[in-house]
Amino acid sequence: MTHILAIDQGTTSSRAILFDASLRVVSSAQHEFAQHFPASGWVEHDASDLWVTVAGVARAAVEKAGARPQDIAAIGITNQRETTLLWDRRTGQPLHRAIVWQDRRTAGLCDRLRAEGHEPMITARTGLLLDPYFSGSKLKWLLDNIDGARRRAQRGELAFGTVDSWLIWNLTGGKVHATDATNAARTLLYNIAENRWDADICALLDIPMALLPEVRDCADDYGRTRADLFGREIPILGVAGDQQAATVGQACFAPGMAKSTYGTGCFALLNTGTQRVASRNRLLTTIAYRLDGRTTYALEGSIFIAGAVVQWLRDGLGLIRQAAETQALAEAADPAQDLVLVPAFTGLGAPYWRPDCRGAVFGLTRNSGPAEFARAALESVGFQTRDLLDAMRADWSDAAGGVLRVDGGMATSDWTMQFLADILGAPVDRPRVTETTALGAGYLAGLQAGICPAPEEFSRAWALERRFEPAMAPQQREARHARWKKAVQATMQAA
Ligand SMILES: Nc1ncnc2c1ncn2[C@@H]1O[C@H](COP(=O)(O)OP(=O)(O)O)[C@@H](O)[C@H]1O
Ligand SMILES: O=P(O)(O)OC[C@H](O)CO
Q: Model's pTM, two decimal places?
């Protein structure tokens, strides 16, 4: 019983990583699946794709390592958050495709609820904003639009879940309908102060509470897998949303510690300890993790486009063939030009929350070419992070200018990480283990299984690969940031 299997169900792919008892990677497997865009601003995943790819990569990772089922002590699950599923409790059949976190179809509903004055109450209880990003309005849409769904939900025939719950349900053969506190905290239906589903918000959205999963700690007993999946029943002992799992994997356990993950989007979380800091700057208040019934909170800044801007250079403009080519282009860019790219392709996330905005480029000249575009794209990720960290510092004085721990695919870009340190005016630390999301899920499961050490000792094992120190002159930093802010203002005005 020396291994831990971490399942990371992400927005574009499902991954599984097998760790040994010291949390070293033994093997991994990954599988991409289809994205469905049935209408402008709509994004869906096939519920069965999510489950089938997870089952496939989990088995593949175990087989690759030549591990025996009895070697695996526990499974940890981490997942894309907010994505919303609804299924039949008797047959396990989904009633609709999963509505993905990026989906904007409920923008009108959110506007209406805001106009009716409900946002302050919802924010005070959930820490979130009335934005289509979260699960609540998506679940209401499903109940409003699938014939007979609300009536069946009232009779207790249906189950709602975020992706973790859907996977737990399938792994356990329909025996367990549960979620963890971090995933619950992203639904818009969960009271993060009192740690319970909020009956008033459910009534407001006309959501029958019989739909909701049981909420457990991040390191907890989530039942056992069906024996036929791995040849033995394996206990599921850890669950957390992917950004919270990365916070754990980065060992950001002390108040004031922050991490930022650069995948398709960027999500920065600042540990605020037992304090539930209410943001005055439109950040989210969320649960970082819940262990032994004790909740640790975080401030979160969510940006929808980070690595996706590099994908756009590749797939939209055809300027590069591979993401890593942006480094050489950015280095070759003309220092005399100052192109600013605001990548509001799907609107702006924190701290602006403008789903109606679209992207813009400022400062084009006849000499602007691929190099300047690439540099502006990489810089946009730094500027957006600076906005988040400025908001965090303004919200909470204990956040003052500490180190930022980074991870995710785009954190491998040295140029981007150096610019990030420059524009933040603070050090940026990249760890040796960049699979922090899976590591966090694996650690939570290992903690519950009794094979991983307490957080303090786990923190000591965190190892630095490279620190990026700020090198830009303060005057230049502020001038460049001021120009970015002007570009964002102009982009919002144009919407
Ligand atoms: N060397 C690089 N330079 C810039 N961007 C990169 C680099 N490598 C990967 N990326 C970007 O990182 C993202 C992939 O990161 P990943 O953590 O796998 O994302 P996700 O989990 O959201 O799919 C892609 O959007 C890609 O464009
Ligand atoms: O799957 P990722 O890595 O793009 O993360 C998605 C986030 O959890 C959305 O809130």
A: 0.93
